[in-house]
Amino acid sequence: MSNLKSDFLRILSERGFINDCTDKEGLDEKAATGTIAAYIGFDCTAPSLHVGSLLPIMMLRWLQKSGHKPIVLMGGGTTRVGDPSGKDESRQLLSDEQIAANMAGIKRVFSSYLTFGDGPSDAIMVNNADWLDGLKYIEFLRDYGRHFSVNRMLSFESVEQRLKRQQHLSFLEFNYMILQAYDFLELSRRHDCVLQMGGSDQWGNIVSGVELGRRIDDAHLFGLTSPLLTTASGAKMGKTAGGAVWLNEEKLPAYDFWQYWRNTHDADVGRFLRLFTELPMDEIARLEALEGQELNEAKKILANEVTAMCRGRAAAEAAAATAQKTFEQGQLGEGLPTVEIAANTIREDGLGIVDALVAAGLCASKGEARRLIRGGGARLDDEKIADENMRLQEDLFTAGPVKLSAGKKRHVRLILKD
RNA sequence: GGAGGGAUGCCCGAGUGGCUAAAGGGGACGGGCUGUAAACCCGUUGGCGUUUGCCUACGUUGGUUCGAAUCCAACUCCCUCCA
């Protein structure tokens, strides 16, 4: 395993980034003797990437750190088609305006992880709409389509899944892998890119590109995939009570982002430290060896490191401080999500506690708020709320913000606003 | 184009005229135990109002009926086989 010569592959390997590689020795040789360019594609299906994309982003970061050139491919063109990999059903088609807006949001996050510029190992960002949008159908089919075997395509996991489960797969989506393969070819021609990386669900698409390069340009391209990340409990990474764990601040406050990592399962701590932080391996070994309650320290470090990289050191420290106040001292941390209550809604005869829970975003509906109270999960300044008809009065706020909680982990600061 | 099968709540899936806001499971959320873990146990899981109430919901639109997720018709989409 560790007879790897290149820094790049050795780091990825020892940190657990590698699931599969089309030609590990060949790639190692190439990375050890020169500078290589590698790319990962990101489709613009949402206004922000979420933690699921953090793994590929970290791969690009290590690539750059070991002296190579990362290429971030924005899927402005492929998003118009829709990748069927790993999806049960066809995604709704996104409008071009949505795609453009999503791309703008996604682009922002990369500057936290990569250095962009014109130097040999500076990262660049390209958009596959640049070459996909202008393709001519018949020409494309004749030049490239003939290199694809439908028999083969049908056997790829992404396609086979759909067929086996009797789920609709449109011809549009069926073409996705061809376009992704073509992307690789274009990038190898334009930027001398020799490696495509991605999640293991991308294996089929990546291999298609490697083959296309060999058939048409006689190029020796490489593919490398990372393991599909699931948590120890088997769930796909990146979901939390509030929804997806977004990388962009405007989609998820730093405090919540930090909390996500703080709540990592015991069994995942070591793996996540290796994948999502840049702590030295021996330090990680020490941290993951901690047992019982002490392992919580490792989780805090994990949260701090990941948050610092994504949101900045200051944001990470603020989140850590808020968490400490809230959980370890039982106080009201300043960094908790803050919700303003308009003073005039409360002045007359107070604000119903049920409405307050909904307004605070802790419950999706009044019924849910009532159930929460009945189940004993709602608390006001750490006092269990027993009466679902209770009303918050104005004088409650004279001493300052009030803490409203749903369960042990979700807290909101309520403040009165004129 | 022909023949047959199917569409149920976040997901899977039962239900073939009233007892159905709809079994069961998963997930999620809450409580207990803990370490802001895991496992386990318990509870909750359409909306609004709350003492029995109203509204929305079983692909879509109509119809039969006192009454439909359940029967009928048309339509949409998916699947299988045939051409």
Description:
The chain is an alpha/beta fold. Helices cover 44% and strands 15% of the residues. It contains 19 helices and 15 strands. It has helices at 7-15, 24-33, 54-65, 96-110, 129-132, 137-143, 150-155, 157-164, 171-174, 176-191, 203-217, 254-262, 269-276, 281-288, 295-311, 313-328, 343-347, 353-359, 366-374, and strands at 20-21, 37-43, 69-75, 124-127, 193-199, 222-226, 239-240, 243-244, 338-342, 351-352, 378-380, 383-384, 391-392, 402-406, 410-417. The strands form four sheets. A six-stranded mixed beta sheet has the order 1-6-5-2-3-4, with helices on both faces. A five-stranded mixed beta sheet has the order 9-15-14-11-12. The chain has a two-stranded antiparallel sheet with strand order 7-8. A hairpin with a 2-residue loop joins β11 and β12. α13 runs parallel beside α15 (295-311). It is globular and about 75 Å long. The termini are far apart. 39% of the residues are buried. The model has no long low-confidence stretch (mean pLDDT 90). The structure holds one RNA strand of 83 nucleotides.
Percent helix range: 40-55%
Spans of at least 5 consecutive residues whose pLDDT stays below 50 are none
Describe the main β-sheet briefly.
6 strands, mixed
Average of the residue pLDDT scores: 90
Reading side by side through the largest sheet, how are the strands ordered? 1-6-5-2-3-4
Structural class: alpha/beta
Shape: globular
Radius of gyration: 25 Å
Strand residues, percent: 15-25%
